[in-house]
Structures are given as structure tokens and as C-alpha cells.
Amino acid sequence: VSLFSDQMFFLKTFPLKLVRPFSVHRLPILTLFTKDPCPLCDEAKEALQPFRHRQVDISLQENKVWFLRYRWDIPVFHLNGRFVMKHRVDTVLLDKLLQDAEIDQDY
């Protein structure tokens, strides 16, 4: 049995659509820089509930770099590691940026 025939058996048994059940592209990463107490951050967290995101608490010792950078500007929002907005979330703009990021990753 040759390697080629093994590959053909595999491809016939598992069509290509099933061989790759997940996308090779990563989802856009939305990050909220926050701390407690912060009323604007609380508003942002509520507004971001429909969006998949991660939160970085800048008051933690391991996030001191972010504290020094954003202590007067939180909440701050990054998309794929790049600053996109601060203070208040613009959900319409954010939704557009997320859609654009997903489209960009398809190419």
C-alpha cells in the first residue's frame, strides 16, 4: 500500500469540508481595559455583553504598564491589540470594526 493510496482513502472517507471543521482564522480580539471602581467601566461592561471580549484590570500589579498608560482614560478599548476608543463605547462603530476585522482575516 502506497502513501498516495492512503491519502486517497482518507480524502474519500473524509471530504475536505469535514477535515477542516474550524476556521484557520482567529476571531478578532476585543479587549476592555478597566478597574474598580469605575462607573464608565461599568457602563462599558454592560454595553459589551453582546460582544465576545476580554477584560484587563489595570489596577493589578501585573498590569502596571497598562495602568501607567491608561489610568486617566479608562475604559479603553483595543481591537486586535490596537487602540480603537476610550471613555464610552460606541456600539455601532464597534460592531462595524469587528465586522471589518473578520472580513480582513478572510483575505
UniProtKB/TrEMBL annotation:
Checking Gene3D superfamilies in the record gives:
Glutaredoxin
Cross-referenced SUPFAM superfamilies? Thioredoxin-like (SSF52833)
Q: Does the keyword Electron transport apply?
A: yes
Any matching Pfam family: Glrx-like
**In which family does this protein belong, per the annotation?**
Belongs to the glutaredoxin family.
The record's PANTHER family line, in alphabetical order, gives: GLUTAREDOXIN-LIKE PROTEIN C5ORF63 HOMOLOG
Q: What is this protein called?
A: Glutaredoxin-like protein
Organism taxonomic ancestry: Eukaryota, Metazoa, Chordata, Craniata, Vertebrata
